[in-house]
Fold this sequence. Notes:
alpha+beta; Beta-Lactamase; Homeodomain-like_sf; 17% strand; nucleotide-binding
Amino acid sequence: MQKSINNEQDRPKQIAAELRLRIEDVHERAGLIKMLTDLLKTHFNFNGIFIQSVDPHTGTYYPFLIDHHSKARDLNEFKALSNTRASLQDPIVCDAMKAKHSFVVALKDFASMAAVPYWIKINFEYGIRKGLVTPLRIKDEVVGVCYIWFDNQDPFQEGLADVMDAISLDLGFAVSNTMINEMLTRREWSNELLFAFSRDLAEVKTREDLSRAVTDGLKKLITFNDFFIIELVPDEAHPNFIFSSLLLEAAELQWLYTNSFIKDLFRETADLNMPLIFQLSDFETTDPPLCFGSRGNEKSEELLLKILPGSSGSQFGLILVSNKTNVFDLSDRALILRISGHLATAVSNVVMHEELARREKDKEILLAFSHDIASVRNKDDLRKAIEKVSGQLSSIARFVIRGINDDQETMTIYIYDDKVKKGVEENGQQFILNKVFPLNDGISEVVLAGNETMVFELQEWIDAGKASSCIHFWRGLGAQKCVATPLKTGGRNLGIFWVDSEYPDVKMIGSICAQISIAMSNILANEELLKFKQRLEVENEYLQEQIRQIYNSSEIIGTSSAMQEVYQLMSLVANSNASVLIQGETGTGKELIARGIHESSQRKNQIMVKVNCAAMPLNLIESELFGYEKGAFTGAYEKRIGKFELAHRGTLFLDEIGELPLEVQVKLLRVLQEREFERLGGKVTIKVDVRIITATNRDLKKEVDAGRFRSDLYYRLNVFPIQLPPLRERREDIPYLAHFFLGRYSKNHSFKVTGISAGTMNELKAYSWPGNVRELEHMIERSVLLSTTKNLTKVYLPDSKAGDCAGSVDMNNLESVERQHIIEILTRCNGKVSGKGGAAELLRLPSSTLNSKMKKLGITKSSVVK
């Protein structure tokens, strides 16, 4: 206004008239606030102008115009200030809604209030002290509120209130019209943005694409801080998290999976088409959602929720989050409603592409796993293959395979990963890894009865009192949920694959288990073949030894009444399974009798395994009898079956049973009673069907009385005793035996010795034979080697007269004879014990037995050679 105003009383009217003319020509916000500020400042002193728009439908107000010269435009809080809605019940605004004319307020009266509006606090902190408040009315309805701010100036400047009252109607129309124009412009602009946004959504294939489209496109249409997209799955207890604009931490993700807060929100919106707006303060919860909590100086306050239209039973939920209240309005709800279909399609595309990618990845994983399985040969290979594939799957945290034992009634842990081992060790429960569990525990038999993977909520089973040992096992390791899959091949149950899995992929685990079953079946078959191979190798050793020793039941020679009595006992016991105890002096042929009983029994087509209890070191007896597992002790580099297992369905001959240590006698008694045992280092019970024949040259009854032999074991072995007569008690058999041995050893002589002179035969009959048949055999062998004629005319008997020894023989003399004989043979062999041409071969003894006798008799090779 260029001309001066002379009449002071008309000054407010003239200023108001000028403003009305100017207001009519303004149709947008920036022009309106600039015109109003510039014109008023030519007549009045003030800091700035602030106009708020009132929305009576929502009961809120929000900033409409801020003076371009205002300090607030330079504040960091300006963006939040200009996008904040507040309640019409706020101080000052509430008074303006009731006022008919302009009024003055002092901000200090409100700045100290607990719930002071944000814009009052900001203005007061930056120096504003008073304000002239003018309600903008159209037909008695307040459409806005205009504020003129002052710091130290006088708000009661003459005529200012009158000017503002005079233009309040025009200014109200200007605000209203500007909003209508902006709404029309915004609608056209939003339509363009919606089209571009829909086009971007149509091209979405990945989460990154979707996040970019929402962040770049939707934020141009609606004011919000963060967003979440959640899949609502009907058959799941909680929604599945898709993704968010936030970089959420593990605890926050966990809340989205487990807290019912989100689920309750969507339950309220499930039956409504329009999006709903919620204030977080409306919800009473002692477990506030971390993802909506404080972030720096900001805190989530308001949510806009919409269930997006879905198909195939799945629905997706959209959550927009604002850090201020009263930000979302009806227009935002309408806009979300318009784009919800496009957004749902985009989300479905993302899920579909991820599912296809996951399936392709699963195929690759399964293909690689099948290649690994093809090279599996043992349990360790299988464990490594499963650990490798589980490392590629989030659905497998830890695993254990419980295998079914041969008895089909119990289970033991067959394979476990390092994480399980570590957890068990931390709990001090390593014994569980070797424990035998019953198959009928209420859960295992249910799993094995079906063909599907089963999911167990562990605490629910424990609370219901139905938890088995496997449930407590996993709960003790801290697991919440476990998956059990039966391992089967060809209808045969092999075991159960247990997995610690918080979010199980049942289909993938089932596919893996199909291959694990094949591998496990192959391992068991290989172990069985290896066991048979080892058995055949050991049997072959025994057979070769038997061939070398030329032991055969037909070599039992004798027609004396004493031997006839033995034959009768043999025939009586042969076809039974009774334990036989053969007693007699050394050299009486106890092993021949044992083999004769075996060959006459129903077990003759199976092997007879011989164990010399005196020839084995104390620390090896147990492993020889019962076998051992790989790693059972230092040097156990592979599994080996024992003599009991080797003699299954055959006969086990325990020679020199009287030499067995007491500690081993206890374990032998248990096997004889229960017909089962475990290998050293093993945890699987092995059942055996073995016929026991024992032999000894000791008087076991005296050994029992002396405490050197267990009475219970003695009575278990002495079911059917056979006492072999010494050779001196059946002298009539000496001619038959002598000619038999003569025929055997004369074959390798330079010329064949065909007979024995009468005098020599009388000498043989007169001798007491403390070494019995074995001494006779060796004597004939020696005499044949020293003979120079075809008729044996001299035998090299000990110097003592035969007649002097016709009575019972002294054991000391017996040992001296045996010692002298062994020394003579060793001398001939230059001290060589085993191998071809060794003393063991000449004496027809196993080298281990000869070594044992040499140790017992104090014979050393060095002394013999010397």
